[in-house]
Amino acid sequence: MSDERCYKCYKLIEDDYLTFQNNNYHADCFICQHCRLSLDGKKFALQQSGHLICATCLSKSLFNCNICEEPIIGGKYIQYRKSRYHEDCFLCAKCRREIGHGKFTVSPNGFYCVTCKK
After folding, report:
1. Which terminus, N or C, of the chain has the lesser number of Cβ atoms within 10 Å?
2. What is the pTM of this model?
3. Residues ≥6 apart with Cβ < 8 Å to 29
Protein backbone atom coordinates (compact mmCIF):
# COMPACT_ATOMS: atom_id res chain seq x y z
CA MET A 1 0.00 0.00 0.00
CA SER A 2 1.29 3.44 -0.93
CA ASP A 3 1.54 6.37 1.43
CA GLU A 4 1.07 8.81 -1.48
CA ARG A 5 -0.99 11.87 -0.49
CA CYS A 6 -3.05 14.32 -2.50
CA TYR A 7 -1.29 17.65 -2.97
CA LYS A 8 -4.49 19.60 -2.29
CA CYS A 9 -6.30 17.79 0.54
CA TYR A 10 -3.33 15.80 1.94
CA LYS A 11 -5.47 12.67 2.28
CA LEU A 12 -4.13 9.30 1.20
CA ILE A 13 -4.59 8.40 -2.44
CA GLU A 14 -6.06 4.92 -2.66
CA ASP A 15 -7.46 4.87 -6.22
CA ASP A 16 -6.89 6.71 -9.48
CA TYR A 17 -5.18 10.06 -9.37
CA LEU A 18 -3.93 12.86 -11.63
CA THR A 19 -0.41 14.27 -11.67
CA PHE A 20 0.52 17.88 -12.37
CA GLN A 21 4.06 19.23 -11.88
CA ASN A 22 5.09 16.08 -10.01
CA ASN A 23 2.20 16.48 -7.55
CA ASN A 24 -0.59 13.92 -7.27
CA TYR A 25 -4.26 14.86 -6.89
CA HIS A 26 -7.51 13.01 -6.33
CA ALA A 27 -9.73 13.57 -9.38
CA ASP A 28 -12.18 15.48 -7.12
CA CYS A 29 -9.37 17.77 -5.92
CA PHE A 30 -8.00 18.68 -9.34
CA ILE A 31 -10.51 21.50 -9.87
CA CYS A 32 -10.68 25.19 -10.73
CA GLN A 33 -10.34 27.41 -7.65
CA HIS A 34 -13.22 29.60 -8.83
CA CYS A 35 -15.92 27.53 -10.59
CA ARG A 36 -14.96 24.24 -8.84
CA LEU A 37 -15.22 22.25 -12.11
CA SER A 38 -12.77 19.49 -12.96
CA LEU A 39 -9.60 20.46 -14.82
CA ASP A 40 -9.00 16.96 -16.14
CA GLY A 41 -8.46 17.26 -19.89
CA LYS A 42 -9.07 21.03 -19.91
CA LYS A 43 -6.85 24.07 -20.39
CA PHE A 44 -5.94 25.80 -17.14
CA ALA A 45 -3.34 28.03 -15.57
CA LEU A 46 -1.33 27.90 -12.38
CA GLN A 47 -1.56 31.18 -10.49
CA GLN A 48 1.27 32.69 -8.44
CA SER A 49 -0.64 31.69 -5.30
CA GLY A 50 -0.45 28.03 -6.37
CA HIS A 51 -4.17 27.82 -7.17
CA LEU A 52 -5.37 26.35 -10.43
CA ILE A 53 -7.85 28.24 -12.62
CA CYS A 54 -9.61 27.03 -15.74
CA ALA A 55 -9.29 28.90 -19.03
CA THR A 56 -12.99 29.87 -18.90
CA CYS A 57 -12.69 31.60 -15.50
CA LEU A 58 -9.41 33.18 -16.50
CA SER A 59 -11.02 34.65 -19.61
CA LYS A 60 -13.84 36.16 -17.49
CA SER A 61 -11.33 37.98 -15.33
CA LEU A 62 -10.57 41.53 -16.40
CA PHE A 63 -8.42 42.45 -13.42
CA ASN A 64 -6.28 40.91 -10.72
CA CYS A 65 -6.56 41.88 -7.06
CA ASN A 66 -3.74 44.21 -6.04
CA ILE A 67 -3.22 42.27 -2.79
CA CYS A 68 -3.55 38.54 -3.55
CA GLU A 69 -2.96 38.89 -7.32
CA GLU A 70 -5.81 36.44 -8.03
CA PRO A 71 -8.29 37.24 -10.81
CA ILE A 72 -11.35 39.26 -9.89
CA ILE A 73 -14.28 37.25 -11.22
CA GLY A 74 -17.93 38.16 -10.92
CA GLY A 75 -17.65 41.91 -11.06
CA LYS A 76 -17.62 42.71 -7.32
CA TYR A 77 -14.50 44.55 -6.25
CA ILE A 78 -13.18 47.65 -4.52
CA GLN A 79 -11.31 50.22 -6.57
CA TYR A 80 -8.96 52.74 -5.03
CA ARG A 81 -7.13 54.96 -7.48
CA LYS A 82 -5.96 52.63 -10.26
CA SER A 83 -5.88 49.46 -8.13
CA ARG A 84 -8.63 46.88 -7.69
CA TYR A 85 -9.18 44.54 -4.74
CA HIS A 86 -11.41 41.61 -3.83
CA GLU A 87 -13.84 42.77 -1.16
CA ASP A 88 -12.44 40.17 1.26
CA CYS A 89 -8.84 41.28 0.58
CA PHE A 90 -9.50 44.97 1.23
CA LEU A 91 -8.85 44.83 4.99
CA CYS A 92 -7.88 47.23 7.74
CA ALA A 93 -4.15 46.86 8.39
CA LYS A 94 -4.76 46.92 12.16
CA CYS A 95 -7.99 45.02 12.97
CA ARG A 96 -8.04 42.93 9.73
CA ARG A 97 -11.78 43.55 9.21
CA GLU A 98 -13.18 44.13 5.74
CA ILE A 99 -13.38 47.83 4.94
CA GLY A 100 -15.77 47.32 2.04
CA HIS A 101 -17.07 50.52 0.51
CA GLY A 102 -16.90 52.37 3.83
CA LYS A 103 -14.66 55.26 4.79
CA PHE A 104 -10.98 54.57 5.35
CA THR A 105 -7.62 56.27 5.52
CA VAL A 106 -4.38 55.37 3.80
CA SER A 107 -0.87 55.29 5.21
CA PRO A 108 2.40 53.76 3.98
CA ASN A 109 1.50 50.68 6.07
CA GLY A 110 -1.85 50.10 4.37
CA PHE A 111 -5.52 50.96 4.67
CA TYR A 112 -7.19 51.68 8.01
CA CYS A 113 -10.87 51.66 8.93
CA VAL A 114 -12.24 54.77 10.62
CA THR A 115 -12.32 53.04 14.03
CA CYS A 116 -8.63 52.01 13.98
CA LYS A 117 -7.37 55.33 12.65
CA LYS A 118 -8.70 57.22 15.70
Report:
1. N
2. 0.55
3. 6, 7, 8, 9
